[in-house]
Amino acid sequence: MQIHIILVTPSLPENIGFIARAMKTHGYNSLRIVSKDMDILNTNARKTAYGSHDILEDIVYFDHLEEALLDIDVSIGTTSKERTLRKEAISSSEVSEFILAKKGIIEQVALVFGNEENGLSKEEINLCDVVSTIPLQVSYPSLNLSQSVLVFLYELNRNTVINSSPSTDSELNTGLYRELISETDLLLDWLEMDANPSYLRRVKDRIRKLKTIDAHIVMALLKKLKSKGINLQ
């Protein structure tokens, strides 16, 4: 399983350096930045990324978050504004358990962080599959960007969620998982329930939280519908 850190329009080069260093010490190496400012990595970023310049050199840049998420199976958007969201949020301490429950089903996971001042916008949150927050005793002051990334990396490693090569049987499970998403799209279209984007996102949010055994059960039900002569296509 591969974990990717995605920073959306970060404004402080120093934070990027600190994040690279935190990733290095926790065993992660894939850093993506959504920004049209290609000069974000200045001398200050390299100073704070002591011993982690290789991560800076390998950063992949994107103009839009949608592009950065194209190859991602599950994306987790981070925010401190849980009250304003319609999505169900999980705690930072639950993220590792959530990911581990899908091991063998998914391969590419992204943690998405907004910029230092405003965080992720509602539109950017809606592009993510799951939302996560860090429980704090006070609402102000909040953690800065690099501190937030560090908390999530620590939680991932606390339960040993770390980059690993795909197992030989994981591609079949991944294929089943994606097939389930595809079949669900067809079912919603057949039921004429595909006109509400918000509803579709919530349905897919739930599907992505299924465990392997549950995914097999749902897939079996869809196949049963087809065996009854119901053509979803």
Question: What's the SSE blueprint?
Answer:
Elements: E1 2-8, H1 13-26, E2 30-34, H2 43-48, H3 53-57, E3 60-62, H4 65-68, E4 74-78, E5 89-91, H5 95-100, E6 108-113, H6 122-127, E7 130-133, H7 145-158, H8 170-190, H9 197-208, H10 212-227
Parallel strand pairs: 1-2, 1-6, 2-3, 4-6, 4-7, 5-7
Helix pairs in contact: 1-7, 8-9, 8-10
Question: Can you describe this structure?
Answer:
The protein is an alpha/beta fold. The protein has helices at residues 13-26, 43-48, 53-57, 65-68, 95-100, 122-127, 145-158, 170-190, 197-208, 212-227; strands at residues 2-8, 30-34, 60-62, 74-78, 89-91, 108-113, 130-133. The chain has two domains: 2-158, Alpha/beta knot; 170-227. The protein contains ten helices and seven strands. The protein has a seven-stranded parallel β-sheet. The two termini are 32 Å apart.
